[in-house]
Fold these 3 entries.
Entry 1:
Amino acid sequence: MQSDTQAPKVGVIMGSKSDWPVMEHAVAMLERLGVPCETRVVSAHRTPDLLFDYAKGAAERGLSVIIAGAGGAAHLPGMVASQTVLPVLGVPVESKALKGLDSLLSIVQMPGGIAVGTLAIGKAGATNAGLMAAQIVGLQDATVRAAVEAFRAEQTRTVLDHPDPRPESE
């Protein structure tokens, strides 16, 4: 699935369809900032050949960044990073047994020499992965950089316009 008619700049992959409720937040942020992306399930354990093909061909297909979300053993981000020189952003997906701590530790504890940028567990991590991917794309794309700057200015404006934390009375 591709987010629009432009060639994708970011690949958003996940180990299972069940990861979509978290990873959709990365896609939503990319779409909000005008960054074309592609999404697909690529399992480190069930489809290792697909994983290697996807990662090895990512740069050739025009991707600049890969966001990889995974839960449990969470090998997907590290295995993808081992097969490409593109930046890989890992999103730990919350697991039932250990609430995502297992996923976080699996992703963040990469050996020296294979880098994976690891984000927070769950929705916040996916949202920030989308934002960080846009920032990386924005290094070479002034339109995306301007969209990130506008997003940040909007966040600032929202806080300054509503400094009172109490609910507004009707």
Entry 2:
Amino acid sequence: MNKRVSGLLMISCLLISMTAACGYEKKIQSSDHDYGSRKTGDAKMLGGKMYGTSSANNPHQHDNNFFEYSNTISNEVSKLGGVGSAIVMLTDKNAYVGLALDWTAVGTKSAGHTDEQDRSGSSEGVYNHDTGSQRWDNRQLVTPYNSLFTVNDHSMLSDELKQTVAVKVRELAPAVQEVHISANMDFVNELNEYAKEAWMNHSLTPWLKDFNTLVKYQFAGGKIMPQKIKDYDQIRAKNRGGQSIIPNL
């Protein structure tokens, strides 16, 4: 009799442990620490897709009439697991999000894709493996060496990560039509340059044409990248006293 009771107690303990373990696993999968489970019924993916193109066959979706940096939304997205830094721009139509990723979550990239950074120098005690330099180029948010990491194309990001980011953006900016998200290094760095202009209370209006060119290149099959802000600054420095070369001014 005692053996039977002991057996029942053991089975009960096992069932409780399994239930607790399953509950813990489900909680992790539903959190912003796991973007890689990709299982049917994942809480992060319930409901409609919140990111990417929703206005089908609209060739003018990225012809924005203005854009502005959102410090509040950038900070909130930066708090999400897996996101080291985020730059969010709002327009009259859309939200555009540039992500620099970190190692605080799993599955941030879609399967089989690698990031744009070379970290081989870390094992050699240098920053730049190609040149042997120990110095970080702090003029950019993301660099090709030992920094936060990025991926070349937005399709290389986990759908769960993009959904989580888009939901957060829409919570804070419910009027946006579309949320477009990329962790491309050039895209992130250029959004960061626009953010610097905003931090200095400079108008972003002179950069609207370049901004639209940038987002079309990233999200709508555009064929050209705009001139980078830092390139304009270098040209301006060489032509002090001459006519301004800032576009649309």
Entry 3:
Amino acid sequence: MPISVGDAIPAVKVMQATAEGPKEVDTGEFFKGRTVALFGVPGAFTPTCSAKHLPSFIDNAAALKAKGVDAIACMSVNDAFVMGAWAKDQGITDQVAMLADGSAVFTKAMGLEFDLTARGLGVRCQRFALVAKDGQVTHIAIEAPGAFEVSSGQAVLAAL
């Protein structure tokens, strides 16, 4: 069952791609005491994720922060080195925290895994976006497979 409004963000360890290299992050601490817009993508460097999803949050970062979002985070079932390379490729500095869920532990804890093993991609994260205030989900939008309609930065901004 996927995470829903009112649920607490699971507290697990993920890695964050930073300019200094990978850094361990406890998701319970990351979400504590602030409003976070988190979006998940099936994979770094994939076409829709690179051309639309990540850019939609970069383009709306200032507006999201003006509406009370303290942090924006992108999460994918990739390792921190891939997420760091993707951030560099996309020109990300500190607008978006790039969270690597390499073993899909966080993804599975949220009930958002998507098995693409038959297509050679393994377990991935469904495309989604959520807003959490002090670790509690206040908004979530999960895309249908192959869709990109409800999880953009614009959609999250409209939901705030």
